[in-house]
Design a protein that fits this description.
The two termini are about 25 Å apart. It is built from 11 helices and 14 strands. Strand 1, helix 1 and strand 2 form a beta-alpha-beta unit. Strands 3-2-1-4-7-10-8 form a 7-stranded mixed sheet, sandwiched between helices. About 25% of the residues lie in helices and about 15% in strands. With about 375 residues, the chain is of the alpha/beta class.
Length: about 375
């Protein structure tokens, strides 16, 4: 792992931060926290995560078991942003973090058909209009006024008619008093054994932007260099012997009849039956990183000898710690809903080095 800043194989019991990273204690609060994927990333990068907001009670329980947070608010962000009893430390954050649910913008979802509709996830929380949650999050940023806001979302937000939301998000950050930039990142270049493309919005408060100085005259503030080109970690490096998720007989037929040039089961089915379907069932090669882990346990990457990735491989591909306690939540669902901790650690480390260290502060870097 000498070519990687953060190891994808790690344990909560190892403690924070990651080896070779100094603890600096910059303060973070996480929204849409899920099981704490981004929280673990920040902690690995030397941050202090004060707590979280999460609507899903089961996810919140999982977060509590694994992270023992100081502050916890299990409620819709629409209610949380209206609170008038928040502690002073939330008005003095270095980073407000959030990954608003993104299925409305996913290229494998219903996209435009779901925009503006009430939806809910399977764990039973109240209905929400998913494509407005990003703006609720920015409303919270406008109230708390953290130094920096970080938000992660799917690549589909940059494609097709969803770009209109991208522009609206940019304008909402500006109206909240921030200068935003956005970056399309691929986790497979960041020490994560998974080809997971995500958009990261990183915004700095207007009054702090002028504190950032760059020698590169071609980059406007706010600018942050997130070009991380670590060696790929291919599936064969994380492959185990588990077979706890075999393909059903119907899918196994197409798997056995696949052609070497075909990348997914949908191509095989279309060739054989002349019908479309199963395009989310990817054929995983041993010498390439995993395809993106999704929250839908019915979908996934198909590997020899006719099975899906098992739980151990999912944990490794998502860079979750080996001793993470999933309580009773499905491994694939929780991992698919989460930011890979190592991906967030890489982003958080760059933010600290390039932005936080150049801002006026009491503790020198």
């Amino acid at each position: 792992m000498k070519d990687h800043k953060f190891s994808y194989e790690w344990k909560l019991s190892d403690g924070y931060p990651a080896p070779g990273i100094e603890y600096h204690g910059s303060k973070v609060f996480s929204c849409f926290a899920c099981g704490g994927g981004s929280t673990m990333g920040y902690k690995l990068a030397g941050y202090d995560v004060l707590g979280y907001n999460e609507i899903d009670k089961r996810m919140a329980e999982c977060y509590d078991v694994n992270h023992d947070p100081k502050l916890k608010y299990v409620e819709p962000i629409q209610d949380f942003k209206q609170r008038k009893d928040l502690p002073p430390e939330l008005y003095d954050l270095d980073i407000l973090d959030g990954s608003p649910p993104c299925s409305s913008f996913s290229m494998v979802g219903n996209r435009e058909k779901d925009w503006g509709k009430d939806k809910k996830f399977r764990e039973g929380q109240s209905n929400q209009v998913l494509d407005t949650l990003f703006f609720d999050f920015i409303d919270l940023a406008a109230e708390l006024q953290p130094k920096i806001v970080v938000a992660e979302n799917v690549k589909g937000l940059m494609q097709g008619s969803a770009k209109e939301y991208l522009y609206k998000i940019h304008d909402a950050f500006v109206n909240a008093g921030y200068k935003p930039c956005f970056n399309l990142l691929n986790a497979s270049t960041m020490g994560v054994p998974q080809k997971r493309e995500r958009v990261f919005f990183i915004a700095i408060r207007n009054d702090l932007a002028d504190s950032l100085e760059y020698e590169d005259m071609f980059n406007e503030i706010p600018y942050i260099d997130l070009k991380i080109n670590e060696p790929e970690i291919v599936f064969n490096e994380i492959k185990t012997t588990g077979i706890d998720r075999p393909l059903c007989k119907g899918l196994l037929k197409y798997f056995k009849l696949r052609d070497k040039a075909e990348t997914c089961m949908g191509e095989t089915k279309e060739r054989i039956d002349g019908k479309r379907g199963y395009f989310s069932q990817m054929y995983q090669s041993d010498n390439k990183p995993c395809y993106s882990i999704t929250s839908n346990s019915a979908d996934g990457s198909c590997i020899e000898p006719g099975r899906y990735l098992n739980n151990e491989e999912i944990i490794l591909a998502q860079t979750f710690p080996n001793d993470y306690n999933f309580i009773s939540i499905d491994y694939k669902y929780l991992c698919g809903m989460s930011v890979p901790p190592i991906m967030m650690a890489q982003v958080a480390h760059r933010i600290y080095e390039q932005w936080i260290c150049n801002l006026p502060q009491d503790t020198p870097c």
